[in-house]
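Bump. Still looking for Carrier domain-containing protein structure tokens.
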Amino acid sequence: YWLALYSDCRSYNDGVEKHVYRQLPTLDARFLVEDGTVLRDARVGEVGEMHLSGPTVSPGYVCPDGRISLEHFGATRQVDGKKYLRTRDLLRLLPSGGLVYSGRADSLLKHGGAWVDADALQDATLAVRGVAQAAIVPCATGIDAFVVLQTQQHALNHKEQDENETNGDAHSPAPKRLCLGQIPSYRVLSEVRRVLPSGSGTRVHLRTELPFHPATSKIDRRALTAQLTSMADEMRRHSEKHDAIEMGHVQCFAIWLRLALTMLCVPQTVVCVILALLSGGFSSRIDHVLRLARLCYGCMLRLAFLPCFWLALTYVEHRCGPAPGWVASRLKRVHLPAQYSRWLPLVLAAWLPSFWVQTAGACACAYVGWARERDPWLVGGFGFLAALAGVVPASWVLFTAAVTTASISSRATEFLTFILSGIGLYYQVLPKMLSDDYGWLVEGQSGTRELPRSWDLMTRLRLPKWMGERSLVWDPKAAVVDQGNAWNLVYVEGDRGGRPWNSVGLVVNLHWKLAGSMRPFFDAIDNPVALPVQSVPCGPHGGDTGALSSTVERVCGVGGLQSIDSMQAITLTEALRNEFGKSLGVADVLRCASVSELLDVMSRETGAEDEPPKAKTCYRLWLCGLGPRMCTVDWMVSRPNGRLDVLALQRAVNRLVVRHPALRARNAPEQPMFDPTYMGAALWQLWCANGQAWTRSLLGRFASSSIFQTWPRSTIMPQSGETEVVLLRPTVAEITADARWEASDDARAFWAGSSLLNRKPPGSQMFHVCVIPIFNVRGKSPEADAVSVAAEYPSDEVKWYLYAILDHGYCDGPTGLPLFADLLRLYAEESGEPVGLSEPPNACAMLEHRLQRSLQTLPEALDANDDIFHDGLVGWGYRSGYQRFIRFDKHMMQLLRYACRDVLGCSVDVAWLTAIAASFFRLFPTLHRLNLFLVVTCRDKPAQEQMVGYLSSRKLLPLEVGDTRTLALLGLADMISTARRQRLWRRPRPFEKCDAIEINIVSAAAHGLPLGFKEVRCARSAPREWNRGTTSLMNLRLDQVSTDDWDFRLQSHDGSWGSEWGTHYAQALGSVIHDMAMRATDPVVPRA
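Sorry for the wait, here they are.
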């Protein structure tokens, strides 16, 4: 019967490109739909099962005994008195009369190019111990498995049936059903994944219940398919909403660009028309042509020199001028109002006469050349051109500029490239700058000024407004949250140095009744019994299995690879390289769920990192923050006992600076270009995300290249006295200043480190190291050197701290692990304990390479982890908000650790993401999807974990959850853990942060530091203010202070929810953490 259709050489797209078929005219075919108990023909647009009848349809197979059987062929059906063969093929009817294949009605489905029996998969899933219900639903993009795990109630319901099955039969097998209290739920889920086909097309949905058909009492696969369709529709609506937002911005910026170009050319056009009218009939046609040519020439001249005016005024605005003197002193008095500075170049270029434009343009280039390069030859060359601009045609001026400056300055080629690239950058950021200034004027500081509708152009010049009414609406009555019955909320207060303080933070405590009844449980958490390491059959790897299992257990703990977090993955990759000689990437380790999988990955070790750009002294990276956005990252490690050789430490610091070029970086005098290039990169990603066709043309390649070529540079200094880092040492007074404040040694060390930072040596040096001894000082001068005094005390009375600070814009928390690991190993060598070191990669070269790839003409880079998100546009959705500081009782954190280790089988950061998302769903129970805007560390490729550099980026992790009242907590954790392991996140679209939760989780480096050193963190103080604006639904920052102590800062949430919303969220967090540990198979949102 498979010869019943033919293709008409057309295609149809219903999410997947498919062929359009037509039936043979000589064949009787009907497409039927079961509508309850009624069998009817499918309508246009519906999917029906193909039924065939006619002489070409075989009656079946001939059996050995001569019978004709349809047992393995198909089944027949009587329709309107006629016999039809059921083909089990589903086809959709198109209005044109065509047919589109839509799958099978039976259990056969195609996955990965092979036919798979869905019933066999379902039976294999049900055979897994701990699975109560299962359903396999095929779809166009893969296989969706819906699973319900057994709970205590399931075990009680089946107890009697199991006893009946085994009663009276001594040889009958034991019942397969087993309560999840005996099998960790994550192991059941892992076993379910093993029986299903591997690959990203297989998705597991863990539910608390499955829908049943009311007539047949069987699992309703149509309802499950409808759920998947609803989730896909929700995703499509989300995409369409952001398409509309992006298109509104693109249209507004296009109008501003056209308006700016019109303003630039109107004065010249008006002058040309007036001259033509004054000449009257005395002008010939040739005169008109020449006048038109001069008009076009003047407009092109202004278009070319306008970016030069803007560059010069930008450097003036940032006070980047000549050497100190009378010019610099007068330059500092220049005041350009922030709301009008971007309009001034446009006014100058539009109204200055042509010969003055040439002179002013040459002077602007001369000034920028001095402010940027400090090259007198560039100033002299362009000054000479400015003097000739009034008598030499502009075309000759431009030609002479290139020849003259190239002959007298060694930096002319790079500077001219910067000037030409500045043209491309300027016309990309000009609409944004003008619209921002206009928005500031229209909105005002006292409120929004509504413009009359008749002013259509003026209205269209305003950017689309963030519609607050479209955001989530907080309804306390609909929220499913414990209203304080089990959780104690306390305001944070304390005393520091005799000064009492209080704040708006709160503490979530486990209720004393629950804490008392669960005391044995907490004792078991604090003293866990080591689980046996999963046995792996020794295959071709031989005896490496035992050694590898020991390494994994040492780094990851008893949870193994199931519960590894990002920091442990970095440590494990370094251990694999040192102990096994295998250079794996962090992503390779994270994707492994067992030791056997890790062995397989090690056996087919991946290739080396892509070759970075050739070594050079300057990199197009702006390493240091600017003013209030100064990006200072600090780390502290401690050594509980033992002496510290300070001279050896100084030599180790000098070698560390030589070893890592990023520590010798200095910023070029290009601070004014930081904001324009950052804004230009964000706008470029907006053009690409919106699918603008010109981004894939030659013009698009020039636009993206111009952003990269004008990006501020940082220079790697050669090793010299200028780059040496002198250890900062506190005085006795600085380590004893807080003796009246009963603080820990760690807090005193941080206090002393803060004092040392205030008196660090001035200059452009970015890296500083402090050595701080903490001990009880007796009878010493307050001005004495604390390090020298500590050498006189017994070693067991002194606790040493190393405090490192890096004012580095491309630096993050995980940078501290390789930095201190290398420093301490170098210190061990200097103090007589040789330790092998492998050469780290050039962080600046790799970062520049990643920046360049993020500005490709493609919408996204080829590797999602390498795709940098430039968030220069995320301030658009800014609205008022509130903040809270949430602290958790030790028992709450013990529950979280138990949940991630023994129940969910995931890392602590995944457990936090699960708790954060589930708490949000409980406050907004009608929500079916949620975007997590994550600050993640992408040190995925081999050797990147050794980098002293910033390889993190913003990634969006969308959660399409469907009905949160049937989705299990374990299912939500598995969804997040799978996405994290497979790196299914993506670069956010320009404005997706506005309706997402921004989360930054920083885990502590518990392993990987030699010589007994450990990372030290101190809990931060709670905020002192309620109000804080936000550009996202909620902004969270989590810092791990110790194993069971986390700083949970709700830095802001949408102000429309009210100031007390943070209290409800803290209550929801407490209840979710409790449920993750005790009832992980319960729904995310409990039923009322």
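The mean pLDDT is 77.

Edit: fixed formatting.
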